[in-house]
Design brief:
- 36% of the residues lie in helices and 14% in strands.
- The protein contains 16 helices and 13 strands.
- The protein is globular and about 60 Å long.
Amino acid sequence: MSTSVLPDVLQIGRLSVSPPVVLAPMAGVTTAPYRTLCRRFGNRQPFDDATLPPGDASTASGGLYVNQMITARALMEGHKKMLHTARFADGEAPRSIQLYGTDPYWIGEAVRKLVGEGEVDHIDLNLGCPVPKVTRHGGGSALPWHHHLLRNIVRAMVNNAEGVPITLKFRIGIDDDHITHLDTGRIAEDEGASAVALHARTAEQAYSGTARWEAIGELKEHVTSIPVLGNGDIWEASDAQRMMAETGCDGVVVGRGCLGRPWLFQELSEAFTGTEITPAPSLAEVGQIMTTHLDLLIDWLGEDRGTRDFRKHPGWYLKGFPVGSQVRQQLNQMKSRDEMLAVLGSLADEPFPPEAARLTRGHSHGPRRVALPHRWIETRDDPTPPGAAAAAYTSGG
């Protein structure tokens, strides 16, 4: 499918998103500091501007930026780490978060709590995580196979949401022999979800190979009353536009492509408004962006924890730059802001390598056999939640 005019606004229930771009929830990555940095770029503000971009509960300006996944039962039981993960920055709006769970009761109660306490403006359901510690308990990308259970979960979420948009993010299926994306889309539509998003890979693929965008187009043909978003292999703004033109999807979800490249959201904003794309930053400018990112983390967590949390990011920021393994190792072991500034200050400026935008970031493992509960395939029609183990706290994707 192709179109010459692409929509520049995405309507998710009562929430307007412009441009039609969503930052995917990523464990340990989409913290409040990183969301703030991405939002500044999406709104084409100076990245070191200390003010939050404009936004309210009904308007996602510059895109929608989703918090990390939280586990429903752990939230309800007051798990300290989960409560911290669920936090938003002061003034952050709209507030978007992803829930994980396998029991309609706990997920429904988590939605009731988040909505009742005025904590969120949008809730997404994690049906895409492929990691074994999640799928072996029937969660993440394993859950849609049990379609009656999934229907009960979505119904519980929508019934307790009081109009707050509920969305689902899922994969094509467990593997090529157990495809679920069309059934999942229909269930979401039937039960009152506000949108669906498809990561166009199976759980077996994990993050390997090429995303199968044709599955997004297939889903769009079957789900007609709510928006369908596409996810997978969006490395540059042109990829997002091409995905929407080829599949007819209503918006895009960006994950690994923005790791170490928060300015991708500026490129997307410019592309959707027909503005000339700003050149990618040089190494010196990337160093300034890294410093702003670290400063936001230090403000959020304190210097020690903020610095340690930042260590995962330098490798992504410096991807493709000829800086050498010693520099990367120093940044991976840094203990303070001053250490990072000293390392960055020793580097000669370099233009952004054109090929670096398409270099793989984050997970790249797969394909691999999907770990599932005993007889999960054979008991597809059983609506019974898979048990307490599946609801335990996990940091899976």
